[in-house]
Design a protein that fits this description.
alpha+beta, seven-stranded mixed beta sheet, 24% strand, globular, binds coenzyme A
Length: 211
């Protein structure tokens, strides 16, 4: 399928049920309570539709890039996924927040490695630039870590991915999209593939102008 058939658009309530199914398809190792449901997506539409993106082929939903604005405190950076996303509802969204917190990025496996994830990131970057915010921050999963956890600490694993010695399907993708790793988040999420760890990843808006 040619890439031009995939459209990136802002979220609409009519996509909520399909997005719930996409979560189940894209995150098979996540605990059930970590997955977002239709009611969460409806709230994203109400709170910040302009910053939440879907990838579509026709009316089929094949990708999601969701998030919200927040004054992220890097001096108290440790947090859990469910806390910061307010159980999936994104209720900490602050229209004046300095940072875009990336709640979820996912592409259906049948459409991966065709640039759809990159286009979803481009959409996020573009709203961050349009709104003149500092950048994007997120907890990035490390789904390749489970296979190494008896040999490497999570820090060693991440260092090796950053050095390019190991490829992680999520972290390597994010590094390739201009993100840097700022640290590790312990007990971030109930995900056996990442052994519950995540990386704190940051993309800085090069055009940000302080007020
Ligand atoms: C991470 C994820 C969103 C990436 O989505 P994607 O659509 O495959 O992303 P892209 O196609 O833009 O990029 C993926 C890779 O394919 C490459 N690629 C892009 N277009 C390509 C093409 N036409 N042909 C071959 N490779 C291509 C990219 O360069 C990238 O490789 P790199 O990471 O080595 O640079 C997707 O793998 C996913 O949904 N994973 C499961 C959910 C997940 O873990 N989400 C992140 C939670 S933190």
């Amino acid at each position: 399928m040619a890439d031009e058939q995939v459209r990136i658009e802002t979220i609409q309530p009519r996509y909520a049920a399909a997005l719930e199914q996409l979560q189940r398809d894209c995150f098979p190792t996540l605990a059930d309570e970590e997955l977002m449901r239709a009611e969460h997506f409806l709230n994203h539409c109400r709170l910040f539709a302009a910053g939440n993106f879907v990838a579509l082929v026709g009316e089929r939903v094949i990708g999601l890039g969701s998030g919200f604005l927040i004054d992220f405190d890097f001096d108290a950076a440790q947090h859990r996924f469910q806390e910061i996303i307010a159980g999936g509802y994104y209720r900490h969204h602050d229209p004046h927040g300095d940072w875009y917190y990336g709640g979820d990025i996912s592409v259906h496996r049948d459409f991966r490695r065709r640039g759809v994830g990159s286009r979803l990131y481009a959409a996020r970057k573009s709203i961050v630039q349009r709104l003149n915010r500092r950048g994007i921050v997120a907890g990035g999963l490390i789904p390749g870590y489970a296979g190494f956890k008896t040999k490497l600490s999570p820090g060693e694993y991440v260092d090796r991915v950053v050095a390019g010695d190991l490829y992680d399907s999520t972290l390597s993708f994010q590094l390739g999209r201009g993100f840097n790793v700022r640290g590790l988040l312990k007990d971030y999420i109930d995900d056996e593939a990442s052994d519950n760890w995540a990386t704190l990843i940051v993309w800085r808006n090069p055009d940000y102008q302080p007020a």
